[in-house]
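Structure tokens please, single chain.
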Amino acid sequence: MADNSKTEDTASDSVEAAKNASDKKEKLADQVMQNPQVLAALQERLDSTALTPSSYIETLPKAVKRRINALKQLQVKCAHIEAKFYEEVHDLERKYAALYQPLFDKRREFITGEAEPTDAESEWHSENEEEEKLAGDMKNVAVIEEKGEETNIKGIPDFWFTILRNVDMLSEFVQEYDEPILKHLQDIKVKFSEPGQPMSFSLEFHFGPNDYFSNSVLTKTYKMKSEPDKTDPFSFEGPEIVDCEGCTIDWKKGKNVTVKTIRKKQKHKGRGTVRTITKQVPNDSFFNFFSPIKVSGEGESLDEDSEFTLAADFEIGHFFRERIVPRAVLYFTGEAIEDDDNFEEGEEGEEEGLEGEEEGEEEEDAESEPKKDSSQPAECKQQ
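Here you go.
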């Protein structure tokens, strides 16, 4: 009888202990569920798992999934047709480029002063015509004084340089020592690849004779691809630049602004003597535009900074081709810039540039100015 009583007491204690443990768990669960952060995390997890399209597709019957796969096959075929469409658009661009070119040639003549527009060609009715009319009397007073000055002005001075300075995404690459060179820039042309050749376009920067390099033309070629990626065909959204190629600039002695000469002190470990050495290191310059980063080969990958630089380069190439060259006068006057908000997302890159300026404690030497080279300009060679 005593044994039975002990057994009942032990069982009762076990039940009580289990009940207490259960009560503690319930209280702890209540406390956890009252925590708003825990509730938010749980809700987010439920939302992400329950409402994704992929999870819905997984619930569909096998026969329906089979039909969806057939739709994807059709979508891939659509992507290949779209690629052919863009190839024909490129051919059409080439055709119309030939029609634009006589107008662009005349534009160059007016800019450089090789030709003077007629009265009919120079007539333009401005929106501010009334204000200009009111100011006419004041202008007439200064006509005699300005007449002599006007005869000395040839073409439109600093036309292309002003455009590069006006556009933020281009001006950030122009250094003070680039400016005297860019004042010799006479024209920028876009040339499309020939029929039957791989899709590409080239930018030609035409320079007048100058004291910095002997090239008359600096070129940058952008290679394009208009075909869906085999591994991800649904990502196709039209032609994309896949590589670019610059040219060799034939700098005159001591005039290369893409490098700088620095002096560095070195201390001998044993003797303790100090010597000063000089060497050339890369320098920020607009003309680095003609020495682009090469796209890595198969199995290789670029670092994050190089990827960013290459993407920015491709963006600039498109901008010259689609905006700057066709609408140059509106970028010169600033009218196109007021409505142009395509490239406002550059703050990150600008901040990275500022960080880079803080590096290094080396002394810089200005390159010695050599005698002016009178060699004739020549078109630059592709790298």
